[in-house]
Request: fold
Amino acid sequence: MSSDLQQPDPATKNRWQNRLQAIGLMLLLGAVIGIVRWFVADTVRYSGETLPDTVITSALLRNNDLSTTPLVKPWASRSNEVLAAIDMIGSKHPQQTAELRERLAVISEFIKENEQSLPDVFDHKSEVAQELTQLHWEATNLLSANTDDSADKASTAEVLARLDDEVLAHAQVREKHINEQVQRETKPHLEETRRVREKLQRDTCDLEDEIAAVTSSRERIVDERDRAEDRTTRVTALSRDLSEIRRLLSPFISPGHTQPNRTAIDWPTTIEKAPVSLSGLKRVGALQPTMKGLQDLMVCGSMMAPGSSGERPLGSFPDYDKYLTSPQNLALVKRAQELLRTHGQTLVEERLLSP
Reply:
C-alpha cells in the first residue's frame, strides 16, 4: 500500500529537512541557555503570571530601530536574536519582514516600559517569551525559504548549464556528421566540376589564342591594305608628275658614282652607280623649305652635271647659280624641291632615288 503513495520530490524533501533542523537547533539553543541561566541566576523567579493580551496589543510602535532601544537582559538578548534573524532575511520577502519588525518593535517597547516588573531570568513560559519564540521561528522559516530558493536556483542553473553543454556537444557532433555526409555526397560532383572547369579554362585559353591570332592577322591585313592604298595613292600622284620629274630631277634620279655626304659640296665617290640618296639630300639640308635649303639644292643639282665634274645629266634643272639671282632659276629649284619633298619616298620605292 505504501508503494502506491506519491514520493515527494527531492527539493521539497530538502526544504522540510532544513526547516526541521533549524527548529531543532533553535529549541536546543533555548534549552541550553535556560539551563545555564537556571544555575547562575539569582533565586528570584518570575511568578509565572501571564501578561494580559491587552497590554501587549495596546503598546505603540515608537521606534523601529531596535539596536538603539535599551532593553532588560536577558530579554534584550532574545530580542536581538530575533532582530538578527529578521535582518538576515534581506529583501526577498519585504512584506513579511516589515510585519515581523513591527511585531518585534511592539514587544520591545513593552519590555522597555515594564523592565522593573520583568524577572532577570528569561522565562520560556511567559507570553512575551512565547511571542519572541514565535517571531524567531517565523524569521527562521523565511530565511530557510530564501536558502531553499537560492539552492533551487543554483540547482536549476547547474541543470541548465549541463543541458546547454549537452545540447552544444550534440549540436557539434551533429554538425560534424552533416559536414562529413555533405563531403561524401558532394566530392564526386566537386571532382567533375573541377574537371569541367579545367577543360573550360583550357578551351578559353585556346580560344583567346585564336582570337589574338585572328586579331593580329586582321591588324596586319588592315595595315597592309592601308599601306597598299597609301602606295597606290602615292604612285598615282607620282605618275601625274613623272614626266616633269624625269626632266627637272634628272641630276638626282640618274645613276652616278657620287653621293652627298655632310655638306652640299661634300660628294665622295662610290663604287656602285646609283641615283642620289634621299637621306643624303635631307642630311645636307637641301630639302629644307628655306632660301638656304634652296641654295644647297641648287649646288647639289648643278654639281651632278658633267660640267661640274659630275656624270649625271642636268636635264631641265638650271645650271649653277649659287645665290639664285635669276627668278627663273629660283622657280625651277623651288619646283624641284617640292617634287622631292612630295614624292621622295615613292621615288625611293620605285628605285628612282636611293634610300
About this structure: The first strand starts at residue 256 and ends at 258. Residues 1-6, 40-71 have pLDDT under 50 and may be disordered.
